[in-house]
Amino acid sequence: MLIRDGIPGARANRIAGMALAVTLLVSCGPAVPAAPTAEPLTGTYTASGGGGALPAVQALTARFSELHPKVDWIVAESGSNSAIKLVLANAIDVGFVSRNLTDAEKQQVTGIPIGFSGTAVVVNAANTVTDLSKEQLRRIYAGEVTNWSELGGGDQMIRPYIREPNAATRQTFEAFVFGGAVPTYGKSVIQQTEVEAMLTAVNSFRGAIGIASTGSRTAGDKRVKMISIDGILPTQETIASNDYKIVRPLAVIYSNAAELKPAVRAFFEFVKSAEGQRVAAAAY
Protein backbone atom coordinates (compact mmCIF):
# COMPACT_ATOMS: atom_id res chain seq x y z
CA MET A 1 0.00 0.00 0.00
CA LEU A 2 1.34 3.41 -1.01
CA ILE A 3 2.14 5.66 1.94
CA ARG A 4 2.76 9.43 1.57
CA ASP A 5 4.32 10.95 4.62
CA GLY A 6 2.47 8.50 6.82
CA ILE A 7 -0.95 9.05 5.06
CA PRO A 8 -2.43 6.24 2.95
CA GLY A 9 -2.39 7.06 -0.78
CA ALA A 10 -6.17 7.26 -1.33
CA ARG A 11 -6.66 9.55 1.62
CA ALA A 12 -3.72 11.70 0.54
CA ASN A 13 -5.23 12.04 -2.90
CA ARG A 14 -8.60 13.14 -1.45
CA ILE A 15 -6.97 15.79 0.76
CA ALA A 16 -4.93 17.13 -2.17
CA GLY A 17 -8.07 17.30 -4.32
CA MET A 18 -10.00 19.23 -1.65
CA ALA A 19 -7.15 21.71 -1.26
CA LEU A 20 -7.06 22.24 -5.02
CA ALA A 21 -10.81 22.81 -5.15
CA VAL A 22 -10.66 25.42 -2.38
CA THR A 23 -7.79 27.14 -4.16
CA LEU A 24 -9.73 27.27 -7.41
CA LEU A 25 -12.88 28.51 -5.68
CA VAL A 26 -11.05 31.38 -4.01
CA SER A 27 -9.13 32.36 -7.12
CA CYS A 28 -12.06 32.11 -9.56
CA GLY A 29 -14.99 33.15 -7.35
CA PRO A 30 -16.12 36.68 -6.40
CA ALA A 31 -13.70 38.88 -4.48
CA VAL A 32 -14.08 38.71 -0.72
CA PRO A 33 -14.65 42.24 0.68
CA ALA A 34 -12.00 43.49 3.06
CA ALA A 35 -14.68 44.83 5.40
CA PRO A 36 -18.49 44.67 5.67
CA THR A 37 -20.34 47.06 3.36
CA ALA A 38 -21.64 50.12 5.21
CA GLU A 39 -25.39 50.32 5.66
CA PRO A 40 -27.13 53.05 3.59
CA LEU A 41 -28.10 56.22 5.43
CA THR A 42 -31.63 55.95 6.74
CA GLY A 43 -34.00 57.41 9.33
CA THR A 44 -36.00 60.53 10.18
CA TYR A 45 -34.15 63.56 11.58
CA THR A 46 -35.16 66.95 12.97
CA ALA A 47 -33.90 70.46 12.24
CA SER A 48 -35.10 73.68 13.85
CA GLY A 49 -33.97 77.29 14.16
CA GLY A 50 -34.12 80.90 12.97
CA GLY A 51 -36.53 81.90 10.22
CA GLY A 52 -33.90 83.73 8.21
CA ALA A 53 -32.08 80.46 7.56
CA LEU A 54 -35.22 78.39 7.02
CA PRO A 55 -35.34 78.53 3.18
CA ALA A 56 -31.69 77.49 2.89
CA VAL A 57 -32.10 74.62 5.35
CA GLN A 58 -35.26 73.43 3.61
CA ALA A 59 -33.39 73.39 0.30
CA LEU A 60 -30.38 71.61 1.81
CA THR A 61 -32.41 68.89 3.54
CA ALA A 62 -34.53 68.35 0.40
CA ARG A 63 -31.42 67.88 -1.75
CA PHE A 64 -29.82 65.59 0.83
CA SER A 65 -32.94 63.39 0.79
CA GLU A 66 -32.72 63.22 -3.01
CA LEU A 67 -29.17 61.94 -2.65
CA HIS A 68 -30.18 59.60 0.21
CA PRO A 69 -33.81 58.55 -0.38
CA LYS A 70 -34.10 56.69 2.94
CA VAL A 71 -33.44 59.87 4.93
CA ASP A 72 -36.40 62.08 5.91
CA TRP A 73 -36.37 65.47 7.61
CA ILE A 74 -38.75 67.39 9.84
CA VAL A 75 -37.79 71.08 9.56
CA ALA A 76 -39.38 73.78 11.70
CA GLU A 77 -38.88 77.43 12.66
CA SER A 78 -38.25 78.03 16.37
CA GLY A 79 -35.85 80.99 16.49
CA SER A 80 -32.07 81.17 16.69
CA ASN A 81 -31.88 81.24 20.49
CA SER A 82 -34.18 78.24 20.78
CA ALA A 83 -32.09 76.34 18.23
CA ILE A 84 -29.00 76.63 20.41
CA LYS A 85 -30.88 75.45 23.49
CA LEU A 86 -32.46 72.52 21.63
CA VAL A 87 -29.13 71.42 20.16
CA LEU A 88 -27.44 71.51 23.56
CA ALA A 89 -30.31 69.50 25.05
CA ASN A 90 -30.01 66.90 22.24
CA ALA A 91 -33.66 67.60 21.45
CA ILE A 92 -32.99 68.09 17.71
CA ASP A 93 -30.43 66.71 15.28
CA VAL A 94 -29.59 69.94 13.44
CA GLY A 95 -29.94 73.54 14.56
CA PHE A 96 -29.80 76.64 12.38
CA VAL A 97 -29.28 80.28 13.29
CA SER A 98 -29.67 83.56 11.45
CA ARG A 99 -27.25 85.67 13.47
CA ASN A 100 -23.68 85.68 14.70
CA LEU A 101 -22.83 83.24 17.48
CA THR A 102 -21.54 84.85 20.66
CA ASP A 103 -18.09 83.92 21.99
CA ALA A 104 -19.76 81.95 24.80
CA GLU A 105 -21.96 80.07 22.33
CA LYS A 106 -18.95 79.16 20.20
CA GLN A 107 -17.58 77.27 23.20
CA GLN A 108 -20.64 75.01 23.10
CA VAL A 109 -21.70 74.75 19.46
CA THR A 110 -20.04 74.74 16.05
CA GLY A 111 -21.53 76.65 13.14
CA ILE A 112 -21.20 75.88 9.44
CA PRO A 113 -21.91 78.99 7.31
CA ILE A 114 -24.70 78.75 4.72
CA GLY A 115 -24.79 82.35 3.51
CA PHE A 116 -26.41 85.60 4.59
CA SER A 117 -29.89 86.99 5.06
CA GLY A 118 -31.12 90.54 5.26
CA THR A 119 -33.66 92.18 7.51
CA ALA A 120 -36.15 93.90 5.25
CA VAL A 121 -38.24 96.93 6.15
CA VAL A 122 -41.79 96.29 4.93
CA VAL A 123 -44.79 98.58 4.59
CA ASN A 124 -48.40 98.07 3.62
CA ALA A 125 -48.71 97.35 -0.10
CA ALA A 126 -50.81 100.51 -0.58
CA ASN A 127 -48.15 102.80 0.89
CA THR A 128 -46.61 105.13 -1.72
CA VAL A 129 -43.30 105.47 0.14
CA THR A 130 -40.57 103.31 -1.46
CA ASP A 131 -37.39 104.46 0.31
CA LEU A 132 -36.33 105.55 3.79
CA SER A 133 -32.99 106.64 5.20
CA LYS A 134 -31.41 105.13 8.29
CA GLU A 135 -32.17 108.34 10.20
CA GLN A 136 -35.80 108.34 9.09
CA LEU A 137 -36.14 104.77 10.35
CA ARG A 138 -34.68 105.74 13.71
CA ARG A 139 -37.09 108.68 14.02
CA ILE A 140 -40.09 106.48 13.15
CA TYR A 141 -39.26 103.87 15.77
CA ALA A 142 -38.26 106.47 18.36
CA GLY A 143 -41.68 108.05 17.97
CA GLU A 144 -40.31 111.34 16.60
CA VAL A 145 -42.14 111.01 13.26
CA THR A 146 -45.76 109.90 13.42
CA ASN A 147 -47.28 110.65 9.99
CA TRP A 148 -46.23 109.45 6.55
CA SER A 149 -46.80 112.95 5.13
CA GLU A 150 -43.62 113.99 6.95
CA LEU A 151 -41.71 111.44 4.84
CA GLY A 152 -43.20 112.17 1.43
CA GLY A 153 -46.18 109.85 1.76
CA GLY A 154 -49.89 110.37 2.27
CA ASP A 155 -51.60 111.86 5.29
CA GLN A 156 -51.64 108.63 7.27
CA MET A 157 -50.65 107.88 10.85
CA ILE A 158 -47.56 105.64 11.08
CA ARG A 159 -48.15 102.37 12.93
CA PRO A 160 -44.72 100.79 13.58
CA TYR A 161 -44.26 97.10 14.43
CA ILE A 162 -41.18 95.33 15.79
CA ARG A 163 -40.30 91.69 16.46
CA GLU A 164 -39.77 90.16 19.91
CA PRO A 165 -36.45 91.02 21.65
CA ASN A 166 -34.68 87.70 20.98
CA ALA A 167 -35.55 87.62 17.26
CA ALA A 168 -32.48 87.85 15.03
CA THR A 169 -34.36 90.17 12.67
CA ARG A 170 -34.86 92.66 15.50
CA GLN A 171 -31.29 92.37 16.80
CA THR A 172 -29.87 93.08 13.34
CA PHE A 173 -32.31 95.95 12.81
CA GLU A 174 -31.39 97.55 16.15
CA ALA A 175 -27.66 97.23 15.48
CA PHE A 176 -28.12 99.11 12.21
CA VAL A 177 -30.68 101.73 13.21
CA PHE A 178 -29.41 102.54 16.72
CA GLY A 179 -25.72 101.94 16.01
CA GLY A 180 -25.10 99.75 19.03
CA ALA A 181 -26.72 102.18 21.49
CA VAL A 182 -29.58 101.09 23.73
CA PRO A 183 -32.68 101.22 21.49
CA THR A 184 -35.22 103.89 22.35
CA TYR A 185 -38.68 102.97 21.08
CA GLY A 186 -41.70 105.22 20.95
CA LYS A 187 -44.89 104.38 22.82
CA SER A 188 -46.72 103.52 19.59
CA VAL A 189 -44.37 100.68 18.61
CA ILE A 190 -46.16 97.32 18.80
CA GLN A 191 -44.40 93.98 19.22
CA GLN A 192 -45.24 90.99 17.03
CA THR A 193 -43.99 87.43 17.44
CA GLU A 194 -42.98 85.43 14.33
CA VAL A 195 -43.02 86.40 10.68
CA GLU A 196 -46.61 85.58 9.76
CA ALA A 197 -48.01 87.70 12.61
CA MET A 198 -45.81 90.59 11.46
CA LEU A 199 -46.89 90.40 7.81
CA THR A 200 -50.54 90.09 8.81
CA ALA A 201 -50.27 93.15 11.05
CA VAL A 202 -48.59 95.27 8.37
CA ASN A 203 -51.28 94.23 5.92
CA SER A 204 -54.04 95.17 8.37
CA PHE A 205 -53.22 98.89 8.57
CA ARG A 206 -52.48 101.18 5.63
CA GLY A 207 -49.94 103.16 7.65
CA ALA A 208 -48.12 100.14 9.08
CA ILE A 209 -44.38 99.49 8.89
CA GLY A 210 -42.47 96.45 10.15
CA ILE A 211 -39.48 94.18 9.65
CA ALA A 212 -39.08 90.67 8.23
CA SER A 213 -36.37 88.43 6.86
CA THR A 214 -35.58 89.04 3.21
CA GLY A 215 -36.14 86.25 0.76
CA SER A 216 -38.77 84.68 -1.43
CA ARG A 217 -41.33 84.36 1.39
CA THR A 218 -41.39 88.09 2.12
CA ALA A 219 -40.79 89.20 -1.46
CA GLY A 220 -43.65 87.01 -2.70
CA ASP A 221 -46.20 88.24 -0.14
CA LYS A 222 -48.48 90.65 -2.01
CA ARG A 223 -49.88 92.07 1.23
CA VAL A 224 -46.69 94.01 1.90
CA LYS A 225 -43.76 95.47 0.00
CA MET A 226 -40.09 95.72 0.86
CA ILE A 227 -38.68 99.23 0.59
CA SER A 228 -35.13 100.38 -0.04
CA ILE A 229 -32.98 101.79 2.74
CA ASP A 230 -30.68 104.66 1.78
CA GLY A 231 -31.51 103.87 -1.85
CA ILE A 232 -30.60 100.16 -1.67
CA LEU A 233 -33.20 97.41 -2.02
CA PRO A 234 -32.56 94.11 -0.21
CA THR A 235 -31.85 91.63 -3.00
CA GLN A 236 -29.64 88.56 -3.23
CA GLU A 237 -27.04 90.64 -5.05
CA THR A 238 -27.02 93.63 -2.69
CA ILE A 239 -26.89 91.37 0.36
CA ALA A 240 -24.00 89.33 -1.07
CA SER A 241 -22.10 92.51 -1.99
CA ASN A 242 -22.80 94.08 1.43
CA ASP A 243 -24.34 97.12 -0.26
CA TYR A 244 -27.50 96.46 1.75
CA LYS A 245 -26.48 97.01 5.34
CA ILE A 246 -29.08 95.23 7.49
CA VAL A 247 -27.53 91.80 7.08
CA ARG A 248 -26.87 88.79 9.29
CA PRO A 249 -24.99 85.50 8.72
CA LEU A 250 -26.72 82.12 8.48
CA ALA A 251 -25.36 78.82 9.78
CA VAL A 252 -26.30 75.28 10.69
CA ILE A 253 -25.06 74.23 14.12
CA TYR A 254 -24.33 71.17 16.25
CA SER A 255 -23.24 70.64 19.84
CA ASN A 256 -19.50 70.30 20.42
CA ALA A 257 -20.26 67.54 22.92
CA ALA A 258 -22.63 65.56 20.72
CA GLU A 259 -21.94 62.16 19.17
CA LEU A 260 -23.32 62.81 15.70
CA LYS A 261 -25.44 60.16 14.02
CA PRO A 262 -23.97 58.92 10.70
CA ALA A 263 -26.68 60.57 8.59
CA VAL A 264 -26.36 63.85 10.48
CA ARG A 265 -22.59 63.83 10.11
CA ALA A 266 -23.01 63.13 6.38
CA PHE A 267 -25.48 66.02 6.15
CA PHE A 268 -22.99 68.47 7.67
CA GLU A 269 -20.33 67.26 5.22
CA PHE A 270 -22.81 67.88 2.39
CA VAL A 271 -23.50 71.39 3.68
CA LYS A 272 -19.77 72.16 3.58
CA SER A 273 -19.37 70.79 0.04
CA ALA A 274 -19.41 72.96 -3.08
CA GLU A 275 -22.81 71.58 -4.04
CA GLY A 276 -24.25 72.23 -0.58
CA GLN A 277 -23.07 75.83 -0.62
CA ARG A 278 -24.62 76.31 -4.08
CA VAL A 279 -27.94 74.85 -2.89
CA ALA A 280 -27.99 77.19 0.11
CA ALA A 281 -27.11 80.25 -1.98
CA ALA A 282 -29.88 79.48 -4.51
CA ALA A 283 -32.54 79.25 -1.78
CA TYR A 284 -32.86 83.03 -1.35
Layout of helices and strands, plus pairs?
Layout: E1 3-4, E2 7-8, H1 9-28, E3 43-49, H2 54-67, E4 71-77, H3 80-88, E5 94-97, H4 103-106, E6 109-124, E7 131-132, H5 134-141, E8 159-163, H6 168-177, E9 190-192, H7 195-204, E10 208-213, H8 216-219, E11 224-226, E12 228-229, H9 236-240, E13 247-255, H10 262-272, H11 274-281
Parallel strand pairs: 3-4, 3-5, 7-12, 8-9, 8-10
Antiparallel strand pairs: 1-2, 5-13, 6-10, 6-11, 6-13
Structure description:
With 284 residues, the protein is α/β, with parallel strands linked by helices. The chain folds into two domains: 43-117 and 248-281, D-Maltodextrin-Binding Protein, domain 2; 122-245, Periplasmic binding protein-like II (D-Maltodextrin-Binding Protein, domain 2, 3-Layer(aba) Sandwich), CATH 3.40.190. The protein has helices at 9-28, 54-67, 80-88, 103-106, 134-141, 168-177, 195-204, 216-219, 236-240, 262-272, 274-281, and strands spanning 3-4, 7-8, 43-49, 71-77, 94-97, 109-124, 131-132, 159-163, 190-192, 208-213, 224-226, 228-229, 247-255. The strands form three sheets. Strands 3, 4, 5, 6, 8, 9, 10, 11 and 13 form a nine-stranded mixed sheet that branches. Strand 1 and strand 2 form a beta hairpin.
Weakly predicted, low-confidence segments: 1-37
Count the DSSP helices: 11
How is the quaternary structure best described? single chain
CATH architecture of the largest domain: 3-Layer(aba) Sandwich
Strand content: 15-25%
What name does the CATH topology of the largest domain carry? D-Maltodextrin-Binding Protein, domain 2
Going by helix content, strand content and strand pairing, the class is alpha/beta
Rg over alpha carbons: 30 Å
**Largest β sheet strand count, sense and barrel closure:** 9 strands, mixed
CATH superfamily of the largest domain: Periplasmic binding protein-like II
